[in-house]
Amino acid sequence: METLVILATIMAVFGVLGFQRGTRSAVVNTVVVLGGLLAIKFGSARIIGFINKLHKGVHFFLASDVPTNVQPLATNDQPGPWLVIVFIVLVALGLLVSQLKMFRGAPSIGGLLLGLVGGYLVSAYLVDALALSAAALPLPFGLSSAKLAQGIATAPEAGKDILSRLNTALGSVDKKTLATLLAVILALFFIAALRLSNKGSQKG
Fold first, then answer.
1. What residue segments make up the domains of the chain, in order of their start?
2. pLDDT tens, residue order, the chain (204 aa)
3. Are 13 and 186 contacting, i.e. CB atoms less than 8 angstroms apart?
4. What is the rounded CA–CA span in Å between residue 39 and residue 141?
5. What is the pTM of this model?
6. Which of 30, 41, 70, 101 would disulfide-bridge 118, Cβ 3.0–4.6 Å?
7. What angle is formed at CA 5 by the lines to CA 148 and CA 117, rounded to 5 degrees?
8. Gap between the Cα atoms of 203 and 71, Å rounded
């Protein structure tokens, strides 16, 4: 059930936005989604390294600890929720960039179809990362792998700074609850993006 909710919600969001904003905007979204998937597939170690450096900086700033004594927030084997968070941030940025006037065009069926494709890619990754289905939804370029499926995992123990608390909180949330929360957040983001699209159309 959770898989169907996520799949239907995200594909609807991307499909409607793709239709409203036109083909060029949908192409931008799809490229960003594919780029995010490839970045996580082939650059997860660098992403996790950056997250740990950021964690050390925050921990040092808030707790005044020596950074070398801070336990990593994530590892290659246990990335916790952070790869999923990075992916969602990239997707959100893609949606915002595609709102720019230079990418917007007339409503089109091509934009709708590309939007549905982008929405499916996002859905497939999240279903895989949240392990909501025994059989992962297929992704291109061999992206549906065990590496990708570790988006939500048991995170290493860490300190009590804000990132560590967030890490612990997300790791303790039931996957069904997390899926429902994600669907609600995406629905709210969709409403906001739809209002921005409508305002942009009226100004144009």
1. 2-199
2. 667 777 888 888 899 889 988 999 999 999 999 999 998 888 888 988 888 888 777 767 766 555 556 677 777 777 777 888 888 889 888 888 888 888 988 889 999 999 999 999 988 888 777 765 555 677 877 775 444 444 444 444 444 555 555 555 555 555 566 666 666 666 676 666 666 656 655 555
3. yes
4. 13
5. 0.73
6. 30
7. 60
8. 51
